[in-house]
From TrEMBL:
Its EC number is 3.1.11.6. Heterooligomer composed of large and small subunits. It catalyses: Exonucleolytic cleavage in either 5'- to 3'- or 3'- to 5'-direction to yield nucleoside 5'-phosphates. It comes from Candidatus Thiodiazotropha endolucinida. Residues 14-107 form the OB-fold nucleic acid binding domain. This is Exodeoxyribonuclease 7 large subunit.
Length: 458
């Protein structure tokens, strides 16, 4: 039996690039994102910001790549010999035909993963000087207003408000509500800290939450939060967890308190102590007055004794007159001294009253109300001006609109084949189809005859 060339089946010959490309497609479409654990080896970190490494176990290994955008989200620094878990996509590197994993996420595996990330970040920030005492701000002894960054529904806020009310009820408090654990908590705290600095309405801030595990406190170990605390122009006290709990935020804060309640005591003056001090000053004033009066009385008694010893009647009369004069001056001086002291006391009390946070709050509230009314009037005037301009532009647009021209009986004619707008009869030929757009609807026409344009008169 004879076989012709046409009977031989055609061969489907692959190129190397086609084979690799189709193999990569099969791999990527066959595997979803997977979790895989292993040990890092052959770690390479070029200047591009990507990292390349091998992930191995006792039997096999696979090449891995993590690109810069994903690497920037890591909370720790990968190292050779470290056990990690990857969330990765199975793929193929076409240039060398190598099987590889594209890592989307990486975290230390096993016990102490969070602790390792904590220690690595702590060492990094300490090396940059974020924990240095030279950068710490002084906590004011008598703040005009206190800001609290914490969860509005947690136990910490109740403890803070209870302590502040007990120690100094007149101290105003602003609460910046945030989520203190879970996804997005660190970003919320960074936002509220920046907002507090923008408003600049508080003299000191408290960053706080109740106790919990290392995982519960993980939001306070965030690098962006640490840098926001370091950049804050307002002094910040951290009161996070219990006395044994330490976070990155504690190291960066201007002062750390072992508990939320202790943080409230640090930033608030003690009302009882202030009253005791005022009482002590009053007692000292009375003692000084009594002592000086006794001293003058003793001097007066001495002078009288000396006068009795110097018996001549003339000198006695002169000295008696001088004594009366001195006695009168002494009483006037004492009375004037007491009046001056009373005025000073009243002035100090008036100054203390003027510095009351409540009065400052009322003044600020009045200013804010005036500014709001001015802003409302300005917005109304601006809106009226814009509406006038818009109406004028609408009238101008209607005047210039081609549709307005069409309504006066004109038409726009274009070639049907390419939509070209016709301006001269020479642009078409007999038999061509043209579209004529009218004010309402359009016509499809065929050119039956062409009249050339009339020549202009000389």
């Amino acid at each position: 039996m004879n076989t012709t060339i046409s009977d031989i089946p055609q061969r489907d010959i692959y190129t190397v690039s086609r084979l690799v490309r189709e193999t990569r497609s099969v791999l990527e479409n066959s595997f979803p994102l997977i979790w895989i654990s292993g040990e890092i080896s052959n770690l390479a970190q070029p200047a591009s910001g990507h990292i390349y490494f091998s992930l191995k176990d006792e039997i096999a290994q696979v090449r891995c790549a993590m690109f810069r955008m994903k690497r920037q989200r890591l909370r720790f620094q990968p190292e050779n010999g470290q056990q990690v878990m990857l969330r990765a996509k199975v793929s193929l590197y076409e240039a060398r035909g190598e099987f590889q994993l594209i890592a989307e996420h990486m975290e230390p595996a096993g016990e102490g993963a969070l602790r390792l990330a904590f220690e690595q970040l702590k060492q990094k920030l300490a090396a940059e000087g974020l924990f240095d005492a030279a950068h710490k701000q002084t906590i004011p002894g008598m703040p005009g207003q206190v800001g609290i960054i914490t969860s509005p529904s947690g136990a910490a806020i109740r403890d803070l408000l209870t302590v502040l009310k007990r120690r100094f009820p007149a101290l105003p408090v602003v609460i910046y509500p945030v989520q203190v654990q879970g996804e997005g908590a660190a970003e919320q705290m960074v936002h509220m800290l920046q907002l507090a600095n923008q408003r600049n309405e508080c003299d000191v801030l408290i960053l706080s939450r109740g106790g919990g595990s290392l995982e519960d406190l993980q939001a306070f170990n965030d690098e962006s939060l640490a840098r926001a605390i370091h950049a804050s122009r307002i002094p910040l006290v951290s009161g996070i967890g219990h006395e044994i709990d330490f976070t990155i935020a504690d190291f960066v804060a201007d002062q750390r308190a072992p508990t939320p309640s202790a943080a409230a005591e640090l930033v608030s003056p003690d009302r009882a102590a202030w009253l005791r001090q005022l009482h002590q000053l009053g007692q000292r004033l009375r003692l000084i007055q009594t002592s000086r009066l006794r001293h003058h009385q003793e001097q007066l008694s001495t002078l009288r004794n000396r006068l009795l010893r110097q018996h001549p009647s003339q000198r006695l009369l002169q000295r008696a007159q001088r004594l009366d004069e001195l006695n009168q001056r002494l009483r006037q001086a004492q009375q004037l001294y007491l009046v001056n002291l009373q005025h000073r006391l009243e002035k100090l009390w008036s100054s203390l009253t003027r510095l009351s946070p409540q009065q400052r709050i009322e003044n600020r509230r009045h200013h804010y109300q005036l500014f709001a009314e001015r802003l409302q009037r300005a917005m109304e005037r601006r809106l009226m001006d814009k509406r006038t301009v818009l109406n004028q532009l609408a009238r101008d647009l209607h005047t210039l609109s081609p549709l307005n021209t069409l309504s006066r009986g004109y038409a726009i004619v274009s070639r049907e084949e390419d939509g070209h707008i016709l301006r001269a009869s020479s642009e078409v030929e007999r038999g061509d189809r043209v579209n004529a757009r009218l004010s309402q609807g359009s016509l499809v026409c065929r050119v039956e005859d062409i009249n050339p344009a009339a020549k202009k008169e000389s």
